[in-house]
Design a protein that fits this description.
This protein is α+β, with helices and mostly antiparallel strands. The protein is 20% helix and 41% strand.
Amino acid sequence: MSLAVLRASPEEGGDETHGNGGSPRRLDVDAERVFSSRNERGELKEVMGTILADESLTRVVVAAGGGDPDAFLAAVLARLMAIERLDVEIGYVTHTTTPATENYSLPVGEQAAAFAVSAPAVSTPLIRDDTGAALVGIGHHRGRDGHKLEGEGIVDDTRLFAGETAGVTVRPTPQAPGVRASLDRRWRRRWVAGRAAQTGGPAIVVVRDGVVAPKTVRRSTFYRHHDDWKLVRP
């Protein structure tokens, strides 16, 4: 197995390093810059192009820290989806529990690195939205400026709400059908599973793995991609 480590670096400008004696190749990306503007995503694109130029590569270990580690993993996954390289296995290393580690029962901290390198990868439903962004942890549909969400929400053929609600939460599932969604309630949260969770309304704020979309939309759907991804997980 040939692998590379892609690390979210807090430092400005990533440095490429090569391990000795068969150590995995490591490349750093400034995660804050990746999400600060659309143009900075070119840095991730360039670094992943360097990694994937190695035809023997079979696994990428994503080591993410900072405020939104799941968002960095999702950006890597979205890039693999865009260039049709979902054959590459992905291991995930983070120091703390995140929505993604909860969704997929992943170890964190000291155990995570060894697991991401040596454990087998499992075919896993890939959840994306209409913009081509991937979702690995948790997504939200909310109203604008703190107001209630107005419109209608469905999961496959099941209606979640019609009218107003505090918001909708969507999470990927490790097995089919792929997503589950619920209304944001303090008590008695009810999850509905399906292949797609869709909300329509006059002004929807979309949050993907902690990153708030800059513009509201009238319709947003989190749904299962036609190809799965290969995640190193139990």
